[in-house]
Amino acid sequence: MEIFILLVIIVVVIVAFKFESMMTSKMSPDELQIYKNEIKWGKHNSAMICPHCQTKGNIYTKSVKRKKGISGAKATGAVLTLGVSMLATGLSRKENLTQAHCSNCDSTWDF
Fold first, then answer.
1. Does any domain span residue 11?
2. Residue 50, domain member (yes or no)
3. Rounded-to-integer distance, Cα 89 and Cα 35, Å
4. Number of structural domains the chain divides into
5. How many C-beta neighbours within 10 Å does residue 78 have?
6. Mind listing the pLDDT tens digit for each residue in 54-109?
7. Cα separation, 15 vs 9, whole angstroms
8. What whole-number distance in Å separates Cα of residue 93 and Cα of residue 91?
9. Which residues, at least 6 apart from 65, have a Cβ–Cβ distance to it below 8 Å?
10. Is the pLDDT assigned to residue 44 strictly greater than 90?
11. Whole-angstrom Cα distance, residue 76 to residue 81?
């Protein structure tokens, strides 16, 4: 049973790889570059202007989670449980941000 599941996963990966190579072979060089950047950096945002190089149309954005500071609730839980909860959750809180990347000057920033 486990071998069958492994074989199915391998076949799905091979089919997906073939489909992607078939799709990318039909793209122009500019479309291919945008496609590769979207895989790595997120969706293309043509309206945004880079704050570093002041160019428009070369920005890619995606949602990210970053650790930021210490969560008050987690610190309180750690005090009440004598530090046991810290092992499972840690003390830092996570914040949802947007990551932007400029393909012209290769800058990456969060906002």
1. no
2. yes
3. 37
4. 1
5. 19
6. 999 889 999 888 877 676 776 777 777 776 666 666 666 678 899 999 989 989 99
7. 10
8. 7
9. 94, 95, 96, 97
10. no
11. 9
Block residue for tokens 């391998």 = 10
Name the phi and psi angles at 13, rounded to 5: -65, -45
Nearest residue to 99 via CA among 62, 57, 74 = 62
**CB neighbour burial string for 45-62, b if at least 16 within 10 angstroms, e if fewer:** beebebeeeeeeebbbbe
Task: Say if CB 107 and CB 91 are below 8 A apart.
Answer: no
What span, in angstroms and rounded, lies between the C-alpha atoms of 28 and 32?
Answer: 6
- Looking at residue 60, what is its pLDDT? 92
What is the reported pTM? 0.56
Of the pLDDT bands very low, low, confident and very high (cuts 50, 70, 90), residue 52 is very high
Residue tagged 């990347």 (tokens): 101
Assigned domain for 53 exists: yes
Q: Whole domain around residue 103: which residue ranges? A: 42-111
Residue 61, domain member (yes or no): yes
